[in-house]
Amino acid sequence: MFYLIGIGLGDAKDITVRGLEIVKRAESVYLESYTSILSVGKDELEKFYGRELIIADREMVEQNSEDIFKNADVSDVVLLVVGDPFGATTHLDIIIRAKQKGIPFQVVHNASILNAIGCCGLQLYSFGETVSIPYWTDTWQPDSFYDKIFENRKRGLHTLCLLDIKVKEPTLESLMKRKREYEPPRFMSVSEAADQLLQILLKKADDGELAYKESTLCVGVARVGSPTQQIVACSLKEMKEVDLGKPLHSLVITGGKLHPLEEEYLETFTAYKSNDENAGK
Amino acid sequence: MFYLIGIGLGDAKDITVRGLEIVKRAESVYLESYTSILSVGKDELEKFYGRELIIADREMVEQNSEDIFKNADVSDVVLLVVGDPFGATTHLDIIIRAKQKGIPFQVVHNASILNAIGCCGLQLYSFGETVSIPYWTDTWQPDSFYDKIFENRKRGLHTLCLLDIKVKEPTLESLMKRKREYEPPRFMSVSEAADQLLQILLKKADDGELAYKESTLCVGVARVGSPTQQIVACSLKEMKEVDLGKPLHSLVITGGKLHPLEEEYLETFTAYKSNDENAGK
């Protein structure tokens, strides 16, 4: 049996009881390591699970899934995924490939940022389409997420922005070489995301109506579900100066006027104070 | 400490290891029983947790939270919630009240339908605003969710429809009496939801452009995350005839043209076959 098991967002103990039972009895246990990361490392997971984990990078999951599937027809093989297994498209793909090879599979769900973002007090039913904000380079500065934020905000909906993660990315220089060299891992902060969002505003300045303003209320979160979780609510402009520390970070651009309960929650748990300047923008 | 702990969607073992540790050592453990239900009952949870559970109905959670908070300043009190604690607005409210009373709290996240719906193979990033479909009565037939589905579909986004749950609803006749009597619990099926959606189409027939058609591809799911989970993909009209058995059910109205991977997933795991009639409608 091939098991795709979500391990949640915080630390080793956020795996479900069902998930842990399977991990303990499985023949091999892989840890998918490129779509997200936990606040704790492989060592801590191994210690708590009492199992050795095999790191599965993008190459292994997307191109060499044969290695993972090996023996999954006669024994239990686990692929652990931070958050929920359906948080990333690549996991849909691996399930289809398992089915095509006649390998039975099971999924063990867990929390992911898509529902745990509720911890910031914004109602999950008031979120529109989720967007991803990628790291820009000098020559590649996509901003298709801007239009999605615009559409959400026209309807008064919040936008969850998932921030880029670069793990084991080959350096440009090494792409042509036999021996790959990798960039150090990078995780986009709410400050970096706010900076890119503000840069887009400058480019669109002549557009008339804009998706958001410098003063638009945003909520930044870091390490959701862990003991060091942080939530901050402020304008987009202020968010650029915010330091929420270690990864992972996510950013919410609010949809405009908040529900009174959302307002009360943010006022109770962050330094946010409702006032005319922020309200409804 | 007041703990709000998500227990996931399937059965007793879907609680996280951290959650179970807290449940085992807490002084009192409440089970919130009106915003959702598990496939297993209170008895099975009690047996697995090794703890007696106190059922917390709407009245207790929303009006008598004093009972729940009693002693939470000096000992550990748990409120268990099916899915994730932030799936329902009422839980935001109880956290604010805890904070106001100076009671420290912690949240333990888990899977909820909002992310576990990914099990149907539709990409979570292609969902728009989530809607709730309430049971209609002879005199109360709200359809505000129709406009939200319309807006989502204009943008090619899927809509997750959460289907109504009636647990411990007072009968109309008993509302004026001293002794409340309650309706038997009801859970809207995908068939009932499809029926209401089709009835709206009749009402809107003269509107010109419609949010969806009888032929629009829908995905019905039942008991997500449990061993008896079911997924079916068919037209809205066909969905009216579908019987997915016991609760809980949820319905997705697709946004139009599917991503090739979504198409492949549905073809692999349901009886759905991509054809011109369904595609892009």
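The CA atoms of residues 222 and 249 of chain A lie 4 Å apart.
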